[in-house]
Amino acid sequence: MFKTLKRSAAGAAVPHEKGTAGMQTVQMPVPKEVLIPLQMHIGAPAEPVVQKGDSVKVGTLIGKAGGFVSANIHASVSGTVKAIEDVRMVHGVMAKAVRIESDGLQTPDPACVPPTVTDKASLLAAIQGCGLVGVGGAGFPTHVKLAANVDTLLINGAECEPYLTTDAREMLECSDTIIAGIEAVMKYCEIPTCIIGIERNKPECIDLMCSLTRDMKGVSVKPLPMRYPQGAEKTLIESCTGREVPQFNDAGKPGLPADAGCIVMNVTSVSTLGKYLRTGMPLVAKRLTVEGDAIAKPQNIEVPIGTMYADVIEACGGIKEGVHLGKVIFGGPMMGGAAPSANFPVLKQNNGLLLFSKEKAALPDPNPCIRCGRCIKGCPMGLEPVTIVEAFNRKDFDGLKARCVDLCVACGSCTYVCPAKRLVSQNMALAKAWYLAEVRKGGK
Amino acid sequence: MDERLLVTASPHIRDNTTTAGLMGWVLVSLLPCTVAAAMIFGWRALLLIAVTVFACVAFEYLWCLLLKKPIPVRDLSACVTGVILAMNMPVGMPLWIAVIGAFVAIIITKQLWGGIGFNFANPALVGRIVLFLGFAPRMTAYVYPRTAHDALAGATPLAASVDRSAVSILDVFLGVHGGMLGETCALACLAGLAILLYVGVIDAWIPCSIIGSAFVFTLLITGDLHVTLVEMCAGGLLFGAVFMATDYVTSPLTAKGKLIYGIFIGLAAVLIRHFGSMNEGMSFAILLGNIITCLLNQYVHQTPLGYKKPQKAKKGKKAAAAKEPAAAQGGAK
After folding, report:
1. Whole-number Cα distances in Å, B214 to A2, A189, B88, B224
2. Between A363, A373, A443, which is nearest B253 by CB?
3. Is A400 helix (H, G, I), strand (E, B) or coil?
4. CA nearest B246 in A: which residue?
5. Which of A10, A179, A305, B183 is least enclosed by beta carbons within 10 angstroms?
6. Which domains occur in chain A, in start order?
7. How confident is the model over A347-358, as pLDDT tens digits?
8. How far is B267 from chain A (nearest CA, A)?
9. Domains of chain B
10. Interface predicted TM-score (ipTM) of this complex, two decimals
11. Pick from A325, A425, A426: which is nearest to B3 by CB?
12. Distance between CA B251 and CA B296 in Å, rounded?
């Protein structure tokens, strides 16, 4: 009761729609062509190291990290480089991309051998080499994250977005590499504790992880309540450890999980690390949940990175007969983006492709705010969206600062719960962008 | 595949809750009170409710038509205002006065301020207060319920002349005494509260804090549990706490604000009842609560995840240190 008075943070009771959770992952037939952008991560874009006409194999380095906060990019099919071109990415910015024509053989590059890891430095070098980024959606380079000194490793298996079941499948199908990844990170980064957080709607994953980690020292599984956004980094840290990521760290910068002594890794990220340490094959393929009411055969499908959405849709039986496709969403329905067409490549951090019919895609018209406070009750960060949007409409810098608009994680809960169907989180995003721009200008 | 796709910012799905849905649940939760009013006061209660609801909806419709605004009648908020306003009248109220009440509620209190979401006070409440002040003899002409056992049941148990320690708790709990349509039956109000809480239309903060604080303060003043319980059930306290103080627009946004608001209303109601010149203070107490709501929204806030109180000047932010830390951070403790 007192906790509710301090901060309700109830989140949103989103539907689960995890119809694909029980389906074995399907391997996608090799596409004729892939388009691999050299910017699939937060940070500097990678520099191309191949030229038109070069022949590449699966795992061949094609883009070299352009700095410390950057990641290597590898070929996901074997074949010939057709072009290195500038393409418009799905979120609107331009980026260099490598177009590779596949020979259909998927020959692995013989240079892909398991790395020798002896200490933290060599582990981080290996991770940077394999191009691992936070594949849960953020795309933050993993070696940067792991460089911090912390006491707790959190493995994020919450998968709170509706529809998506890729992490659940990863836990069921690749539990051994998850464990291998956790062991490596704990050993070389000298992290004594590891907590695997899994939402209660995946009981079989919880059981499996519990049985596998029973004899591991310092590793525990934490079943989490079913609420969105349970898997948001800061919410996960609070639910698993009770710690709060500070708004600002001691240096006055926005707080990171490391400031609360934690590193959060997605289960699929840690599993990819485990696979790389075992086989030496970098991150070249990604499991996608293809779902929605417009797709003929919803399923989990493993696709080479750079495959076009259209090819993935075709591999899943195409659009349902008689259904008008209304929206293509990459990622989950709460935080994923809507694509203007199906001609965009699958990126490292994509984990879902949702196809909504016109009816399902239609959104209700906004009505006047009735000040019910549901957005405030739902905000996982304990913010007050209605107050923040009002302050933003007044361009009230001090008001936004006092209400901590910079803490907004853009989870979309406030828009989801709004009975007046207002675009609350969209306005929150505008407010945050405006506020941060003003701060950069020197704070008015 | 070559069809035009919809591109919008996330999230791409929405809850099923709508404004009209919430208002519909409020109407459902008012049903027990409506049934109780019809049983206690007879069929004219239903006529009065029907006329008031019709008048409220008609005023809202005509006003928006006149101003060429979108017609908001379908959100059912005018219906809710109408039912609640009728519940605040005695059964013998002339129908033309009821229409005046509807005019004050919908046009003066709601639409002149900008319609739903912008009114500073609960429309039905202002309607009631205007009728109470303007037509006092008629508003207090409590009619004897059909089922009254004895003469005592005719007057409201809050009247100064009534010895409240002799009133049966069962009678006030079931509402077999004089009073406004909706307020007399405590059982029906509690049933309405149960519905509202069950479907999640309101939180328990406001009704519980009002009833709790009124109980504690009445007990402190009277020192008699029986009298306190009678006072809890009689008059508009329960009806106001459940249906009128919980109006979204005019109550605070945060849980902490709601708690303070409720305690304030409970205290104000008890003070007016015991030390004011009126027998009944709930409507004025809620109006005072409505007025402090904007203050509570400004100064009482949740603590965001990871928020730390800025230590004096530095450390708070890379932007310029807060000029008036006390005022800016006053509520964010």
Report:
1. 21, 59, 20, 14
2. A373
3. helix
4. A372
5. A10
6. 120-279 (3.40.50.11540), 365-440 (no CATH)
7. 988 999 999 999
8. 20
9. 19-299 (1.10.3430)
10. 0.89
11. A325
12. 9
